[in-house]
TrEMBL record:
Keywords: Aminotransferase, Oxidoreductase, Transferase. This is 4-methylaminobutanoate oxidase (Formaldehyde-forming). It comes from Granulosicoccus antarcticus IMCC3135. Its EC number is 1.5.3.19. It comes from the Bacteria. GO terms for molecular function: 4-methylaminobutyrate oxidase (demethylating) activity; transaminase activity. Residues 11-368 form the FAD dependent oxidoreductase domain. Gene3D superfamilies: Aminomethyltransferase beta-barrel domains (2.40.30.110), D-Amino Acid Oxidase, subunit A, domain 2 (3.30.9.10), FAD/NAD(P)-binding domain (3.50.50.60), Probable tRNA modification gtpase trme, domain 1 (3.30.1360.120). Belongs to the GcvT family. The lineage of its organism: Bacteria, Pseudomonadati, Pseudomonadota, Gammaproteobacteria, Chromatiales. Residues 371-426 form the FAD dependent oxidoreductase central domain.
Length: 818
């Protein structure tokens, strides 16, 4: 492509930081002609230029581990390919622990990453820490972890290498071009308007870094992120500082230390950061520093660092730096096509790990554009996981201040955000408060996770062991199993699908047969063409041309997007998000029938009201929908109640339940019950790289429908080849009642690691930790084969015996629900 200003492009990438440069490079590498990268000032001038350049491969999930490992490998390849140095040095990285909780976390993270099989994490003694990082004072240290192949690179040089590589492959990378507007017609990108002219294009990638949210907003695209002040200081050069010093992270003291041109660079992730750019990011910001709040934010971290690395107290300081970096509401970067505008992709919000993520995010964004889908399970980063309220200035800024600190905080199980709370409240929130609920947050919804007894403060006390609410939640679980429990499930996403062609549309999208009589709920999956699971939900036929679809709280925009994009141009079918129109109460347990029958004035016997039946009913004055279904594996009904009638309906239920042993139960109890039943959790146990056959729910696939479902060919092929028999979702139950599963614990068959848990919780009825995880094997994974092996689960480096089963350990035949 010539260097004159282009009139059209296959894709326009907005933002010439390291992320944009990587996207351009990867698109060009995929053979895209006429890729255009536009940078408003100079490449790398926003955030990239002042990044510390740490390259660490230890990650919280396998996809991220694979991507970071790719990024690192690419740094070597880029140098060879472009002749441009990346400054990459493989010096290793060291994390240290001086508290029992951090030590437990480091060991769990090491075990998890070793199970991913991407990087090797070794635990080391304080003496080994000293040998690796001689400048450290090891007093009070319990131990650490060391990753030999981690390192550091030069952010500007890496950006230049991407640009050079992209140009060599034909991309046009321009500096000094400002994008004023993304052009949209009929819900699709058609190009960009710049200060130098218009470029027509079907694809735009917003890699605008800290500008991305404001740029997105101009096109109605929601990209929640906000800039925060990030600090580091650099010492004078010192003879004891050698270039091969590993990167040191002391998370409890909020600090990282790396060698930087013969000096030490000391960076801070203080617990509560300061948001910056609240009035908007200045347009002319370029290679600028911020005045910051050095005394309050940086100095306390430096003082602690001087205790751990005493030479920092003696050496001179060359600079104290503050610069802006963008943080997202959940500390996860954003990637993927926006749900609002077709062809509008996002790759932004790198949460201070942009250099180590750059290769990976560029690759997945480019492949997503090229193939029309993500190349791996990236639901945790998919821009569709965001909600409009998260993009408000107030929320984005408040949450970013917490996100920065959370990077180095202990990642305790069940940890809840402290900021951005009370964004979305259940219609019966006040009743939950009155009953002493302790809330957690999903998709902004405040949800009762557990209930404290009267006189006990409903507040988490975090640890990696049994937390303060363990026994309370156990008794809620027991109520669901033995008497009756009420769960507020109002946060679940609900969509009304209506119209003459609604049945045909849903038949095509749903694996299950949904052309059923208008009194039935159907459990189904939505699959992609590859047979991977895009959604796990229920569909209730309400009338000939009307269906109520219910899925989890976190997936509203993903599901809506999937539904709407699969309605043909000529099909008459509308989709409405009715989440806020209904409260949902799950009344679950053996006493539910006796409790509800008089209240609903309905015959709820098995004959009159079998499992899967769903009809209209009445609860007091409220017209409601009554559905026999259960996510806890017990006799039970879900009641869908108009929002404005939720409180009186709840009060009637509560009163009626008193003589039946009714207890309010929270989401932690729900999860404990569902995992005992081996029910799936979308995003953890199943996602777009897993098929229903592998997950053990092949029954959701109706292969003989008049209208085949999306992914049916892939499922038919998998059935024929029996390849799913080599990857199966297995339930593990520990024999020792003490250790606790959370997620990602390695699965050992004999001495060999064959997978890891996708979800885990304590099964209070089974009396032990229960986990689900995929076992991949050369042999067919059958019940007999499982029974013939020795299974252990690695919990923080200790191995515990477990039973393994394809069927649920609790009520395998499902008799209690039916
Ligand atoms: N930008 C600093 C990276 C922090 C870390 O990797 O720990």
């Amino acid at each position: 492509m010539s260097e004159s200003f282009p009139s059209k492009a296959s894709a326009v990438i907005i933002g010439g930081g390291i992320t944009g440069a990587s996207v351009a490079y990867h698109l060009a590498k995929l053979g895209w002609q006429d890729v255009v990268l536009l940078e408003r000032k100079q490449f790398a001038c926003g955030t990239t230029w002042h990044a510390a350049g740490l390259i660490g491969t230890v990650r919280a999930n396998e996809s991220h581990a694979r991507l970071t490992e790719y990024s690192m490998r690419l740094l070597h390849e880029l140098e060879v390919e472009t002749g441009q140095s990346t400054g990459f040095r493989q010096v290793g990285s060291l994390n240290i622990a001086h508290s029992a909780a951090r030590w437990e976390e480091l060991r769990r993270v090491a075990a998890m990453n070793n199970a991913f099989g991407v990087t090797r994490v070794d635990t080391v003694t304080p003496e080994e820490v000293k040998a690796l990082f001689p400048l450290i004072d090891t007093s009070g240290l319990i131990g650490g972890t060391f990753v030999e192949h981690d390192g550091k690179g030069n952010p500007i040089e890496i950006t230049n290498a991407f640009i050079k590589g992209a140009r060599q492959k034909g991309a046009l990378c321009l500096e000094g071009v400002r994008v004023d507007e993304v052009l949209i017609e009929g819900g699709r990108v058609t190009g960009v308007q710049t200060d130098q002219g218009t470029i027509a294009s079907d694809f735009v990638v917003n890699c605008g870094g800290m500008w991305a949210r404001e740029l997105g907003r101009k096109s109605g695209v929601n990209i929640p992120l906000h800039a925060c002040e990030h600090y580091y200081a650099v010492t004078e050069k010192h003879e004891l500082v050698t270039p091969d010093l590993p990167v040191l992270r002391d998370h409890d003291k909020c600090v990282y230390i790396k060698e930087d041109a013969g000096a030490l660079l000391v960076g801070a992730f203080e617990k509560r950061a300061v948001a910056w750019g609240q009035q908007g990011i200045p347009e002319d910001f370029s290679f600028d520093e911020l005045p910051g709040h050095m005394e309050e934010q940086l100095m306390p971290v430096l003082e602690d660092a001087m205790i751990r690395v005493p030479m920092l107290g003696d050496v001179g300081w060359r600079s104290f730096f503050c610069g802006p970096e963008s943080f997202t509401p959940d500390d996860q970067f954003h990637v993927g096509e926006s749900p609002e505008v077709r062809g509008y992709f996002v790759a932004a919000g790198l949460n201070s790990v942009g250099i180590q993520s750059s290769g990976g995010i560029g690759k997945v964004c480019a492949e997503w554009m090229h193939n029309g889908h993500s190349p791996m399970d990236l639901w945790g980063n998919d821009i569709r996981r965001m909600y409009p309220f998260m993009g408000t200035q107030a929320f984005a800024a408040e949450r970013a201040e917490e996100s920065l600190g959370l990077l180095y905080e202990k990642h305790y199980p069940f940890r809840q955000f402290e900021t951005g709370r009370n964004a979305r409240l259940s219609p019966v929130h006040q009743r939950m408060l009155d009953h002493n609920a302790c809330f957690g947050q999903v998709a902004g919804w405040e949800r009762a996770n557990w209930f404290a007894p009267a006189g006990v403060e409903p507040k988490y006390e975090y640890s990696f062991g049994r937390q303060n609410w363990f026994d309370y939640s156990a008794s809620e679980h027991a109520a669901a199993r033995e008497t009756v429990a009420l769960f507020d499930q109002s946060s679940f996403s609900k969509y009304l699908v209506q119209g003459r062609d609604a049945t045909n549309v849903l038949q095509r999208i749903c694996t299950a047969q949904i052309d059923v009589s208008a009194d039935k709920i159907v459990y189904t999956h939505w699959l992609n063409e590859r047979g991977g699971i895009e959604a796990d939900l229920t569909v209730t036929r309400q009338s000939e041309n009307e269906y109520l679809v219910i899925s989890g709280a976190a997936t509203t925009h993903k599901d809506l997007n999937w539904l709407r994009r699969h309605i043909g141009k000529d099909e008459f079918c509308t989709v409405t998000d009715v989440t806020s129109q209904y409260a949902v109460f799950g009344v679950m347990g053996p006493n539910s029938r006796a409790m509800l029958e008089p209240l609903l004035r309905m015959d709820l016997s098995n004959e009159a009201f079998p499992f899967g039946r769903s009809v209209e009913g009445e609860l007091g004055y409220a017209p409601i929908r009554v559905t026999r279904v259960s996510f806890v594996g017990e006799l039970g009904w879900e009641l869908c109640v108009p929002t404005e009638m939720a409180i009186p309906s709840f009060d009637r239920l509560w009163e009626a339940g008193q003589s039946h042993g009714l207890k309010l139960a929270g989401l932690h109890a729900l999860d404990s019950c569902r995992i005992e039943k081996k029910f799936l959790h979308f995003g953890h146990d199943v996602a777009d790289e897993d098929t229903p056959l592998e997950a053990g729910v092949g029954f959701v696939c109706a292969m003989d429908k008049r209208i085949p479902f999306i992914g049916q060919d892939a499922i038919a092929r998998q059935k024929d080849s029996r390849s799913h028999m080599h990857k199966r979702l297995v339930q593990f139950v520990l024999k020792d009642p003490e250790p606790l599963f959370y997620h990602h614990e390695p699965i050992l068959m004999g001495d060999e690691c064959v997978g890891y848990l996708t979800s885990g919780n304590y099964g209070h009825t089974l009396g032990a930790s229960v986990g689900l995880g995929y076992v991949k094997s050369k042999e067919e994974v059958t019940a007999d084969w499982l029974a013939a092996q020795r299974w252990q689960i690695d919990v923080g480096g200790k191995f515990y015996e477990a039973s393994a089963s394809l069927r649920a350990a609790y009520d395998p035949a499902g008799l209690r629900m039916r």
